């Protein structure tokens, strides 16, 4: 068993609080990604699990053993670092076998284990090579093999793919996921890359300003972000400020800088009074777009229900992104961006008018303090 329990974990450097009151339980065999911007405390949290940093407060338990004050060499954990940290004067095989040598494993056994791990990370046949002659992706595989060779209870990965180019990084994400599924060991992976977290994780923990602010399955995190920070950090979206104009039995009309109000469902309408200020999130994938017809300039709300919305706007900018095209559109006194994934359709150009449609049930709403409003 390799369960990890962090309880009230804190780390201070002088008057600076790097990690504040982090509590989470990581299940045996789980891959948890700590996701957040630079300086959010995720790497410091990982280093405390590894024993490379001592917590200022709180506790760390691995397999129900309190390891809070235990040195790193007494914990059966292994860490893969961002910069690989390979020994240039040792061969690839010697690098992979180094941890086993430090544990007193015989030469024959550590050579066999090193070769096994190199094969696992698709580096078989490179054992005699000089690591300085390897590519970035190959160095990362060797670093991963070295960490796996000691058969750790917990593998800790601190932004291990951030130095790789996009294509190689994506390939390594898939390989890392397959290795985890094969080994069924507990992994804690730190990253600032949203796509990487969603590709790898069984669960994602979002960190910001030293705090762990939401933990959940990838789909739960994406569909139900707890606050505006998470919504903005997870991907591109349009934030539109508004004020509640009217409250009905099952919907709310929000006045915005569009020419028309935005109508959203409101099962909790009693929590929203007229005049309440809020921010709406309109993700680009919720839109459908087409050229307007003659009466669209007068039509502000679609005919298929109170929660459907439409605005007519003018394209200000077109950004071709290969598989998608992004359009910046002026609508009323504000602007939004929309995307079309089918680039084979009729092209749209700067100056064209388009109608943008979406359903109010796809809108997320946040209070001025950033907390989510359930709709």
TrEMBL record:
SMART domains the record matches: AAA
Entry EC no(s): 7.3.2.6
MF-aspect GO terms: ABC-type tungstate transporter activity; ATP binding; ATP hydrolysis activity
Enzyme class: translocase
InterPro entries (alphabetical): AAA+_ATPase, ABC_SmlMolc_Importer, ABC_transporter-like_ATP-bd, ABC_transporter-like_CS, Mo/tungstate-bd_C_term_dom, P-loop_NTPase, Transp-assoc_OB_typ2
GO cellular component, one term: ATP-binding cassette (ABC) transporter complex
Catalytic activity: tungstate(in) + ATP + H2O = tungstate(out) + ADP + phosphate + H(+)
Localization (cell): Cell membrane
Bilayer topology term: Peripheral membrane protein
Keyword terms: ATP-binding, Molybdenum, Nucleotide-binding, Transport
Record domain ABC transporter: where: 4-234
Domain of life assignment: Archaea
Family: Belongs to the ABC transporter superfamily. Sulfate/tungstate importer (TC 3.A.1.6) family.
Annotated function: Part of the ABC transporter complex WtpABC involved in molybdate/tungstate import. Responsible for energy coupling to the transport system.
Assembly description: The complex is composed of two ATP-binding proteins (WtpC), two transmembrane proteins (WtpB) and a solute-binding protein (WtpA).
The name this protein goes by in its record: Molybdate/tungstate import ATP-binding protein WtpC
């Amino acid at each position: 068993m390799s369960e990890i329990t962090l309880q009230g974990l804190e780390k201070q450097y002088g008057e600076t609080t790097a990690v504040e009151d982090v509590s989470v339980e990581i299940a045996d065999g789980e891959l948890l990604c700590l996701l957040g911007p630079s300086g959010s405390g995720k790497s410091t949290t990982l280093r405390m699990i590894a024993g490379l940093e001592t917590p200022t407060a709180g506790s760390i338990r691995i397999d129900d053993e309190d390891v809070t004050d235990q040195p790193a060499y007494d914990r059966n954990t292994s860490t893969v670092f961002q910069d690989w940290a390979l020994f240039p004067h040792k061969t690839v095989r010697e690098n992979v076998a180094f941890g086993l040598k430090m544990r007193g494993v015989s030469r024959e056994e550590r050579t066999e284990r090193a070769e096994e791990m190199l094969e696992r990370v698709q580096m078989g046949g490179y054992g005699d090579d000089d690591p300085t002659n390897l590519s970035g992706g190959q160095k990362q595989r060797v670093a991963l093999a070295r960490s796996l060779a000691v058969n750790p209870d917990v593998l800790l990965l601190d932004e291990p793919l951030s130095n790789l180019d996009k294509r190689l990084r994506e390939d390594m994400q898939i390989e890392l996921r397959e290795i985890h599924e094969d080994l069924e060991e507990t992994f804690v992976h730190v990253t600032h890359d949203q796509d990487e977290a969603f590709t790898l994780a069984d669960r994602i923990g979002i960190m910001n300003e030293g705090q762990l602010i939401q933990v959940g399955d990838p789909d739960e995190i994406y569909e139900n972000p707890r606050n505006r920070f998470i919504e903005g950090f997870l991907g591109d979206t349009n934030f539109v400020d508004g004020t509640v104009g009217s409250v009905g039995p099952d919907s709310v009309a929000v006045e915005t800088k569009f020419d028309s109000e935005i109508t959203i469902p409101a099962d909790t309408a009693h929590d929203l009074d007229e005049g309440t200020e809020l921010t709406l999130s309109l993700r680009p994938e919720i839109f459908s777009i087409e050229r307007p017809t003659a009466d669209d300039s007068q039509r502000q709300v679609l005919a298929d229900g109170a929660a459907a919305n439409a605005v007519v706007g003018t394209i200000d900018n077109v950004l071709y992104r290969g598989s998608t095209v992004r359009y910046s559109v002026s609508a009323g006194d504000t602007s939004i961006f929309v995307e079309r994934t089918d680039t084979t359709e009729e092209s749209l150009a700067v100056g064209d008018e388009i109608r943008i449609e979406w359903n109010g049930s796809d809108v997320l709403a946040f209070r001025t303090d950033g907390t989510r409003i359930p709709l």
